[in-house]
Amino acid sequence: MNLILLGPPGAGKGTQAKMLIDSYGIPQISTGDMLRAALKAQTPLGLEAKKFMDAGQLVPDSVVIGLVKERLAQPDCAKGFMLDGFPRTVPQAEELDKVLGGLSKKIDHVVSIEVPNSELLGRLTGRRTCRACGQGFHVMFDPPKVEGKCDKCGGELYQRDDDNEATVSNRLKVYEGQTMPLINFYKVKGLLRPIDGLGAISDIFGRIKVVLG
Ligand code: AP5
Ligand code: MG
To answer: Does pTM surpass 0.90?
Structure first.
């Protein structure tokens, strides 16, 4: 099964992806995580991407398309994959179609997690992420058992540089301007699966499993 997880910053794409990995055994391909890993490794690509990420802007299409193309060719994507945070522009979506066509693959479902803007700022400013395994938490809505420590692996939890109020406000504007057109792009193709993203994390996971079958 080949999936796209679509939704605004803080909608719960990463949170649901981690649960989907366990249920469906397919890898999560998060362009945001890949860019942060490149930055951690201080590669030229990572250092260049940081400027865009810190400003809440999108990294140029050519950069992320190159990353995804390489990743989709890895053997663990043979039985399926889920794209988290990609595509984010119409040109990225068109390029993805070409890349998948070349691999004789196609997207089965675009899971669009819908959450109103009023909810997103609080989700993002309270988010904490494990440095070691990437598991996400929230100080109020999904707190770790021990403050500052990951429940899964014991790793240190940190706050993302782009999860401050000013950058979040830009990220939301960029989502509305550049990513929201994808909702119609995939609706027309009959692939859009809208999911109400409000409520308990486990309830939302249940809603996604219903549409994936
Ligand atoms: P990326 O890392 O993809 O960030 P994003 O899209 O802004 O999305 P987030 O990761 O912030 O949100 P999420 O939906 O994963 O939410 P989560 O599950 O963590 O991208 C970062 C940057 O990289 C971009 O701004 C851009 O610069 C660049 N980039 C990446 N991809 C790109 C691309 N394709 N093209 C160009 N540039 C690109 O949940 C958030 C919080 O809410 C957590 O604390 C969680 O515990 C909590 N939560 C989750 N569900 C619930 C719930 N139901 N109730 C209450 N709290 C909840
Ligand atoms: Mg995420």
So the answer is: yes
